[in-house]
Amino acid sequence: MKRSWIISLLATLLILGGGIAGVFYVIHAVEEDMQVSAVLAQPPADDEEAGEVPKGTQEIIFESQKLVVQIELEDGTVGSGFLYNDKGDIMTNAHVVANTESVNVKTSDGKKMPGDVIGLSRDVDVAVVRVPGMKGKAPLPVREEDTAELLDEVLALGSPLGLQNTVTRGEISGLDRTLDIEPFHYKNLYQISAPISPGNSGGPLLDRKTGEVIGINSAKMDEETIGFSIPVADVLPMVRRWSDSPMRSLPEFPELTDQVTSPVTGTDTEQASYMVQYFYDSINQGDFVTAYSLLSSSWQEDISFEKFRSGYNNTLSVQVDNLVADPKEDQVEVTAFLSAEETIDGEVQKKKYKVVYPVKKENQSVKIWNGTGEELSTNEEEEAKEEETED
Fold first, then answer.
1. 252 confidence band (pLDDT: 50, 70, 90)
2. What is the arithmetic mean of pLDDT over 76-105?
3. Fold identical between 13-256 and 268-390?
4. Does domain 268-390 have CATH number 3.30.2160.10?
5. What is the distance between the alpha carbons of residues 22 and 3, in angstroms, rounded to a whole number?
6. What domain of life does the native source organism fall in (predicted)?
7. How is the chain split into domains, by residue range?
8. What fold, for 13-256?
9. Which partner from 73, 151, 154, 170 sits 20 to 30 angstroms from 193, CA to CA?
10. Euclidean distance between CA atoms 362 and 80, whole angstroms
11. 242 with 250: CB under 8 angstroms?
12. Strands 102-106 and 153-158
């Protein structure tokens, strides 16, 4: 049954989950302080216009992405979450996992693991999922106190529209916001200018300078670059109680069961392109262990880690100029056009390559099956650019 909602004239807000919640329209959404700060989407700094990311921020993003997961429900809808302790516990939004006891999580390297909901609030939009396969992993650093201030730069991580491990940047543009989105009451929210979309629900909001988790991305203003995050310091005592003593029975949300839901998963081509991009991000960060883990077991049988690692001894950097994904019967063929800086005979040389990767699932995980590449001549580079323009 579809429920008719009265849309508030003051604002239309969306809970960001692709999970049970789908999309909620707010009836009593905005209280007296919903005067949006003038600090919304600021013009990018000169280095950002050039597409450059400060090294510190790049490292924070890369390391954090490994600990952010995509949460998948049986109906195909998705949300986000992040590892907050060494017990394998994932913090997320309650509306992402409402009315379910078990989920699957997908890590940044494409691995899928089962998880159980061990804590779920009826009033606060927070939940905890325990994933045994992530036990023992070092978690994301979490800020213990609410010390965020206006104009603090932030990073929002998650899986908007099912596109895993997407990162958006912005600023805190408002503090102490209050919302009511049935059945949850939100208070002391951060208002942020980082663009966020369905599927971001439960993903972490990071301090751009320190990499600490300061919030849980939870809602957005419809058709605006205005999002809202729950300060993580406000819910830490509750989630830690669940981790120490999991709930024996979970609260139910009958008011959510008749919501219109729709999966927001990324397409196979988008997921395949993501894996190839993540492979080269790992190479550029010097994380060859992660890059090697993205290869299929058959490819790993053909090339040892030591041989794989030594193949990049002379590579200084690799830039992905373009990715072209072509879906086949049982796989996606991703063609990567690359610009590389290499040391050859003591000199730094720039070269262009074209590499084709078949990408498909292996034991429920997306893997890069193998790769065939060629160095491009000047003429071939021009032809490749023409192909990219046509695509």
1. confident
2. 92
3. no
4. no
5. 13
6. Bacteria
7. 13-256, 268-390
8. Thrombin, subunit H (2.40.10)
9. 73
10. 23
11. no
12. unpaired
